Amino acid sequence: MSGNDEALLRSELSTSLEENVERFKALLHADINSDAQFRPLQMRGRRLCAVYIEGMADDKKLSDFALRACVERQEPEYLTVDADTLMEKVLEIAQCEKAEIVEDILDKVVTGMSAVLIDGCGEAVLMETRGYPSRPVDKTTNESVVIGAQEGFVESLRTNMTLLRRYVPSRQLITECLSVGREVPCHVTLAYLEGVADADVVDRLRRRVMSIDASTVQGLGAIQQHIEDSPWALLPQMLQTERPDRAASCVMEGQVVLLADNSPYALAAPITLFHQLHASDDSFARWQYGTFLRLIRVMGMVVSVFLPGLYVALTDYHMHLLPLSLLGSIAEARANVPFPILAEILIMEFSFYLINEAGTRLPNQIGSALGIVGALILGQAAVSASIISPILIIIVAITGLGNYAIPDYGFGIGLVIGRLFVILCGAALGLYGVCLAAFALLVGLCGMRSLGIPYLAPIAPKRPHNPDILLRLPVWLQRRPMFFASQRARTERKAAG
Amino acid sequence: MKLSISTRAARAAMFVAVTVRLFLGLAVELPTTHNGAWISALIGALLAAPWVVCVRYGRSSGLVLIALTALDAASVLASITRSTGYLALDRALPWVLTVPVAAAALWSVWRNGDAIGYAASIGARLALLLLVIVGLLQARAFRPAWLAPVLGSGWPSILEGGVRAAGWIAVSSSTLAVADGDDSPLSRLIPLAGGALAAALLLLLSGMITPTRLGGGWLNRLDDLLCNGRAPLYTQLPMIVVWFAGLLHLLAAQCFACAALVQRTANLNGKWIGAAVVAAILMVSRLPALNEAALWIARWGFLAAAIPVAATALLGGGDRKCASGD
Q1: Is A52 left (phi over 0), alpha (psi -120 to 50) or beta?
Q2: B4, B107, B234: best mutation site toward chain A, by most A Cβ within 10 Å?
């Protein structure tokens, strides 16, 4: 941006309509941008000009409730045409505000609001006319549940905020709007329950969001990477959810939820490792089922990380630790396989994730064909050709199932990377290597924090908590809020319980 | 980077370190106490109790603790490397076995004290679970009769084992000397008592699995411990995991304590100190003279650790001041 443009942006509106219109035309590059619209009109002989972006602003709303209202009001009481009169007596649009700095007006106009410039007046009226096309609220695609609410977040920040408010109809719910990105601003909303969320945590998150120093920030994914405690860690330290009911549950537990424009999901923090193993079904199902499903997910996680590494270590180094019958089957199955176990397992892992990735990118119509290719070619044919032993296919399949039991996508990928590390350590040093890898992963997890809260709390360090972390006890016992909620909320709920 | 550890994490790290060090020392390194090893562990805890209550960082006690902890950490590192011989890795180059452990120890020092303490607390719970599995798998293989005679080789060797146990406890609880904040004597004694009791129980369990063998090499004793010949071989798997995980937690706690003590003395960046300390421990672990040093620590370690603390306790007034050793 040239220095001239910078100066123009920071200037106040002049009282000359022509001058103001020329400024906006220059700043919006109206000679090239065909969607930048300047609509002149008159009200009692005073010239006005509506500035808006075609497509971003709702034409119908603008013409019916703003332009027509201006043109039709010719009575004597509208003798004075200024920003206040327009807002109070003429415009029939719910949300209007005055502005006089060019940059403020322009920032709003590019998001879909419309500005009315008035000749002889150094103020403009900004009208809420945003009406760009957006996806309607629909079923969630990645976090499907058997029972429970079905709707998911969409790309529109306003719709998402409304969805969240619908689930948390409380006057304590604060939705704080921030903007990040120097050149292309991204609108972000911090949502939390006043008095329940810890003020220090809210403040920490706000400071981190505000301190993002980037020219552009593309949605919550980029924001998450900017503000996480340990950006080098394998596992995410914020919870991603596309479900408003889950985001609402986080808010009610004392967490802070981040929403952003063009991001059809929410981020919640602080979280612990155990939050990544929760699913929305848990809250809707009876406590026995919820607990059982969580234990299954924990087992899935452990199997996913350690099973292939243990298989490599045991079959390569410690055959004597396997029961004799199992050892016999493994030896028989591997008799014709020309590759070492490490190569075999890496080939299989690579193929598995190749199918997985291809399946994610493929259109739904041909997705089933990929399943056939995967099952037939990589399974049956590879075994027939003695490239892979059948037992390894079982190992990789169980591992993959364990990974798919994890509700969080990013967390699942982190586990896959951890698994590769364990496999390599197991191949290099056997059980000793697996122990080393497990120790390194455990210490890494224990050193992680999410917005200052230890990642493995309330297990290590031990904290008094709601019995809804690892196991899910009956709802009538879940009176205590989470350990990261504010002290006031904890005291109040404990007293009430 | 400041190397720090909260009192809560320090207590967890100490509990695991004391348990593992006593078991390693009394069951494998110096089995002369025979069946009375568990009594030696408890006597050691009684002897070391005043030291554990008093110890805090001070320049003189700090230097002694640095030397003792580094030497013992090197001895633990050597034990880990030696154990791997049991795991079909006896033909690997020693450096190939030692460097990854040192790297894991360095990683844990860099993740700081809380990570080490919290990992130890989780490790202890997982170990308990695995030991229960071992107990169930080997229930028929336990021989309570092998615990007799209770006094084993007799009182002199039990008392000698007690003094040695006190030395091991002193070096294993050095994390307390660098813990942030202050805690009550009782809260310091709880992990000591817990660690000593856990070690005593483990010694009793191992005594029921295999009769103590005074002769034979280090690896033979480890082999006896992990594989008793009466239970299926695959029941060794959880025992091996517990063995290595325990030693790794002990090593990490000792390396951290050593690095934190050095940082309080030299006031340098924790990352560099951690790397230097782990490198030094790695080098010492490869020295042929380490065995003698380990024996010396076992015999005189408690006195060496206690003298600076006791001397200042007698000369200065007040627990806290004297315990700093300044």
Answers
A1: beta
A2: B234
CB proximity list for A85: less than 8 A, separation 6 or greater: A78
Q: Which domain holds residue A364?
A: 285-453
Together in a domain, A46 and A108: yes
A432·B232 Cβ contact <8 A: no
CATH code 1.20.1740.10 for B7-323? yes
Q: Quick check: A337 and A387 in contact, CB under 8 A?
A: yes
pLDDT of residue B324 exceeding 50, the answer is no
Let me know if residue A358 belongs to a domain. yes
Calculate mean pLDDT across residues A464-480.
79
Answer yes or no: is pLDDT of B317 > 60.
no
Q: What is the DSSP letter of A321?
A: G
Spacing of C-alpha B71 from chain mean position: 12
Q: Under 8 Å CB-to-CB from A31, ≥6 apart: which residues?
A: A25
Q: Given CA atoms B278, B279, B283, B286 in this order, what sign does their dihedral have?
A: positive
- Helix ranges restricted to H, A211-286: 219-227, 244-253, 280-284
Interface of B with A (CB under 8 A): 6, 8-9, 12, 84, 87-89, 92, 96-97, 100-101, 104, 107-108, 111-112, 114-116, 118-119, 121-123, 232-234, 236-237, 240-241, 244-245, 248-249, 252
Q: Cα angle vertex A413, ends A192, B122, to 5°?
A: 75
Same domain, A49 and A169: no
| Domain co-membership, A111 together with A22 | yes
A389 by DSSP, 3-state: which? coil
Question: Both A192 and A314 in a single domain?
Answer: no
Neighbour-count burial for B231-245, b at 16+ CB within 10 Å, e otherwise: bebbbbbbbbbbbbb
The span from the CA of A307 to the CA of B250, in Å, is: 26
Q: What is the pLDDT of residues A51-85, one digit of tens each?
A: 999 999 998 888 888 888 888 877 666 567 788 88
Cα–Cα distance measured from residue B3 to residue A436, given in angstroms and rounded to the nearest whole number: 22
Which residues does A176 contact at the CB level (< 8 Å), separation at least 6?
Answer: A189, A190, A191, A192, A206
Contact A454 B114 (CB under 8 A): yes
Mean pLDDT for chain A? 88
pLDDT at A101 over 90: yes
| A444 CA: distance to closest CA in chain B (Å) | 7
Residues A292 and A267 in one domain: no
Residues A323 and A437 in one domain: yes
The residue among A74, A105, A127 that closes a domain is A127
Question: A174 by DSSP, 3-state: which?
Answer: strand
B270 CA to centre of own chain: 23
ipTM, 2 dp: 0.92
Best mutation target among A302, A435, A463 (most B Cβ atoms within 10 Å) is A435
Chain B closest CA to A424's CA: distance in Å? 13
Q: Which chain A residues contact residue B87 at CB under 8 A?
A: 317-318, 430-432
* pLDDT tens digits, B122-154: 999 999 999 998 888 888 888 888 888 888 778
Residues A329 and A391 occupy one common structural domain: yes
